[in-house]
Each structure stands twice: as C-alpha cells, then as structure tokens.
Write a structure and sequence with these properties.
binds FE2/S2 (inorganic) cluster; Rieske Iron-sulfur Protein; alpha+beta; about 35% helix; elongated; 2 domains; single chain
C-alpha cells in the first residue's frame, strides 16, 4: 500500500467525520419544535374564550385538554365558541429574526473554518505524498561520472551550469575538506560530493531569488540584482544575502556517478563561513556590490 493511497484513505475518513457531524446537527434541529415545559403548562391551564366586553359576556374557561377530549367525542361539531375577532393588524417581521441568527452564523462559521482547515491539511498531506518527478528539476539527477563533470567545469572556466537541475557545479578543493565538517551543518548530506571534489549549488540567490551568474574575472558568483557575492563554492563574501548559496544533497554511486537530489534544497552556510579562503582572483563584475 503506497503512502499516497494511505493519505487518500485518511482524507476520506476525515471527510466522513465532517459529513457525520453536519448530519447530526441537522437531526438535532428537528427537536427545536418540541413544546417547552412552560408551553405545556399553559396548554393545560384554563383559557377564557368567547369573552365580549360589549355584551358583558365573561366567556367560558376551557383547557386545551378539554378541547381535545371534546373534539374526539364529537368530531363533526365545534367545541370552541365561535367568536368574531377583529382582523389582526399586519406587522412586518423583524429582518434580524427571519435572517441568519447568531447561532446559525456561528455554526456555519465553525463548520466553514473546520472545512477550510481540513482542506489545507489534505493539501499538505497530498503535497508530501505526491510522487516526486523522475526527471528534470525536483528529481534525483544523475549528472554523470565525476571525472567528466570536473572536465566540464574546467572547460567552462570554473563554473559548469546544468540547466535540468537549475544548478551550478563547481569544484570543491581538497584543501578545504578538513574545515567542511565543522563549518557545514548539512555536511552529511553533501559529504560524498565534497569528498569527490564537487559541489552542486542552487542557481537562485538566497536574498530575493534572482538567478546568480558567475563572474569569470573574480571567479566568484555575483548577483546583479542587489550585489550579493559568493565564492566559488557558494560561501557568502558580500552584499545583502542572509547566507551563502543554497545547495543540493549529493551522493556518488559505486560506478562513480554523481547523483544530485534537486527535490531537497539545503539552506546555504551562514555568513562568515569560509572553508576555502578564496579571495577574488581578478576584478569583480559588480563595482557597486555590498548593499541594496
Ligand atoms: S537577489 Fe541576489 S542580491 Fe538580491
């Protein structure tokens, strides 16, 4: 049984609970028409009918129970004196009375809020359980054999762009490996790639989301939007970005192929992390870097 199937069953059960609760509320509404104790008491007490102030007729006192008994004994006859009544003056109903009252409003608001929360929860569950793409961005991509990747990086001047994964691949220097475990909280997720000498960086700037291009002269990444700068392995060097470039988990197969999981973006290292010590190797591409 797949996780998606289990999630759908859970959603169906929750929907049944909501439907059951609303049905029960409708059942309860049917009891609203029952007579209250006060009404029953008044029904049993005598009521004077047929009184007429013009003729000084004081009428006769009858009870509801007596009227019912007389009606059963003589179904065809009238048991209540027929009295001429003046027409009742029409009084328009209070709009608030015939509209949605407070109890109805609260009931609907609670059910609506619960339904909305259920939908949001269901959406989140489905989003978690939905099968991940098998190819393209969001999938685990086999980028190729590590030596071939390194050759591509060097042929591209130090920065190899891999569009299917929306990522940059650069070399991770062996001299920096000793610092990486203590500097990267996410080290276990990238360890195999770093040990193989590569790093897979998400192309999106962690400041406000621009695509970060490489700068061939400085051998850094330099964001044209607000001037954030990162060294060749994505550690922040300047500008308003809150951290280094985000990156992806990496693993290396027994055949030496690099697998990059583009469905799990890792936050970049904090400001100040500098495992490679790489300074700008030439003029920066952005002269006004360092702020908004
Ligand atoms: S989006 Fe890159 S520095 Fe602002």
């Amino acid at each position: 049984m797949t996780p998606l199937f289990i999630g759908l069953i859970l959603l169906a059960l929750l929907a049944l609970v909501v439907v059951g609760a609303s049905t029960r509320r409708r059942d309860t509404n049917s009891a609203i028409g029952q007579l209250s104790g006060e009404t029953v008491k008044r029904d049993r007490s005598p009521v004077t009918v047929g009184a007429d102030s013009d003729t000084a007729d004081t009428g006769s006192a009858v009870t509801g129970t007596a009227v019912e008994a007389a009606a059963r004994a003589n179904p065809a006859g009238s048991v209540v004196p027929q009295v001429e009544q003046p027409p009742v003056v029409y009084v328009p109903p209070d709009p608030e009375t015939i509209g949605v009252n407070r109890r109805q409003f609260l009931n609907r608001a609670i059910i609506g809020a619960f339904g909305f929360a259920l939908l949001a929860f269901g959406g989140a569950v489905l989003a978690q359980l939905w099968p991940r793409p098998q190819e393209g961005f969001g999938a685990k991509l086999n980028v190729g054999r590590v030596p071939d990747i390194k050759a591509s990086i060097q042929a591209a001047g130090g920065f190899f762009y891999y569009p299917e994964g929306r990522m940059w691949l650069t070399e991770y220097p062996a001299t920096a490996l000793a610092k990486a475990p203590g500097s990267y909280s996410f080290y276990p997720q990238v360890e195999e790639g770093l040990q193989a000498g590569v790093v897979a960086l998400f192309q999106t700037c962690p400041h406000l989301g621009c695509r970060v291009p490489e700068c061939q002269t400085s051998q850094w990444f330099e964001c044209p939007c607000h001037g954030s700068q990162y060294n060749q392995v994505g550690e922040k060097k300047g500008g308003p970005a809150p951290r280094g470039m985000d990156r992806f988990p990496m693993s290396v197969t027994a055949a030496g192929e690099l697998i990059v999981d583009t469905g799990a973006v890792i936050d970049g290292p904090p400001i100040g992390v500098n495992t490679t010590g790489q300074e700008a190797e030439g003029p920066n591409c952005l002269s006004n870097s360092g702020g908004h």
